[in-house]
Amino acid sequence: MTEKHGDTGMGRHGENTGAVANTPGDETFPRVSASPRPRVFDPDLRILLWDIDGTLIHSLRRGAFKDYTIPMLEEVFGTAGRLPEMIVSGMTDLQIVGEALKHEGFTQADIFERVDHLRESYMTAMRQATSNGEQFFEVLPGVRETLQAVHEHPRYRSALVTGNIEQAAYLKMELVGLSQYFDLPGAFGDESHNRRDLPGLAYERIRKHLQLDLAREQFIVIGDTPNDIDCAKHFGARSLAVGTGRLYSKDDLLACKPDAMLPDFSDVNKVMQALAGL
Ligand SMILES: [Mg+2]
After folding, report:
1. Which residue of 89, 90, 194, 243 is surrounded by the most CB atoms within 10 Å?
2. Of 42-46, 141-145, 201-205, where does mean pLDDT reach its minimum?
3. What is the Cα–Cα distance from 265 to 240, expressed in whole angstroms?
4. Distance of CA 163 from the midpoint of ligand 1 (Å)
5. Is 189 inside a domain boundary?
6. CA 223 to ligand 1 center in whole angstroms
7. What pTM does this model have?
8. 55 Cα: distance to centroid of ligand 1 (angstroms)
9. Distance 51 CA to ligand 1 centre (A)
10. Residue 165 belongs to some domain of the structure
11. Residue 240 Cα, ligand 1 centroid: separation in angstroms?
C-alpha cells in the first residue's frame, strides 16, 4: 500500500518528507525552502472526522454530562437556565449553552464574550466530576479495535470533529486511553454554535498540517446523530452513521441518507468494508 506515495515524495500518511516551503508564520514544519508550497493531490487518502459522544464513547450514567455543565453555567452566568431538562445530543457545547440560556436574556454575543471563562470553568468542573476514581466514560464495542485498524492502514488518518469544547474532547480521549489515534487537528464545539461550521474548520487545518490538496469528498464524518450527517452533507464530505447513540434510531439516521450506516463498530471487518466504499 505504500506505492501510492511512491511518486509523490510523501510519507506513509502523506506528510511532506522532503524540502517544503511553509505558510508564513507556521512553525510546525522546518523552513527549508522559499519555493512555493507543493500542492500534491493524493486521491486515495481518506480523512476520518470522528464524533465522540455516542460514537466512540458513552458516559456510564445517562445525563452525566450535566454533572459538570450545570455547575459551570451557574458559575459563569449565575444560572444553568433550561439545561437540566434539555436533550443535547448532536449539539455543540456553545449551542447547548445558547439554548440553555436564551430565555435568561443571554445572547450568543454575551456567551462569546465569556467564552474564555466558560472554557476554564468547564474544565475545572469536568476534571472534578471525572477524577473521583470512578469510571465516568466507557469505550463503545469495537471502537478501540477500529481505531487501531484505521491507524495501521495507509488510506486513513483520523481527527476529532465534535460538539465538545476542545479541551474536554481531549480529556475524554485521555480518560479512556484513545488520545493516540487522533494525530490530525480537528474542530470543536467552542468554535461555533453551528455544527455545520466544524468540518470546514477541520478541513483547512488538516490541509495546512499535511500540506496536501484534499478534496472535500475525501473527508468522512463519522457520528451517531442527524447533525453529524447534516454537517457532512453541508460541507460536501461523506458520512458514516453509527447506531450507538442513545437518542436516534437506525431509521432516524437512515432518513438523513448517510453514505453508509452501521449498527455499531463491533465487527471491525465490516467497518473497514464500509469505509473502503467511501
Ligand atoms: Mg454524538
Report:
1. 90
2. 42-46
3. 11
4. 8
5. yes
6. 6
7. 0.84
8. 6
9. 5
10. yes
11. 12
**Which of 278, 270, 275, 250 has the alpha carbon at shortest distance from 141?**
270
Q: Find the 230 Cα to ligand 1 centroid distance in Å.
A: 13
Of 204, 274, 208, nearest in space to 235 by CA: 204
**Same domain, yes or no: 144 and 265:** yes
Which three cell numbers mark 5?
506515495
Instruction: Give the separation between CA 157 and CA 167, rounded to whole angstroms.
Output: 21
| Residues 226, 234: Cα–Cα separation, whole Å | 12
3-class DSSP assignment, residue 218: helix
| Unique residue bearing C-alpha cell 457545547 | 93
pLDDT band at 40 (very low <50, low <70, confident <90, very high): low
d(CA 100, CA 83): 5
Q: Where are the alpha helices (DSSP H) in 153-249?
A: 166-175, 198-210, 226-235
Same domain, 117 and 163: no
φ, ψ of residue 5 in degrees (nearest 5) = -95, -5
CA 232 to centroid of ligand 1, rounded, Å: 13
Asked if 90 and 225 count as a contact pair (C-beta separation under 8 A), the reply is yes
Average pLDDT, the chain: 88
What is the domain range of residue 164?
46-58+139-276
- Convert the pLDDT of each residue in 204-218 to its tens digit: 999 999 999 999 999
The predicted pLDDT at position 258 comes to 98
- Compute the distance from residue 81 Cα to the ligand 1 centre, in Å: 23
Taking the centre of ligand 1 as the mean of its atom positions, its distance from the CA of residue 29, in whole angstroms, is: 33
Query: Domain holding 103: CATH number?
Result: 1.10.150.240
Find the 228 Cα to ligand 1 centroid distance in Å. 8
Distance 53 CA to ligand 1 centre (A): 4
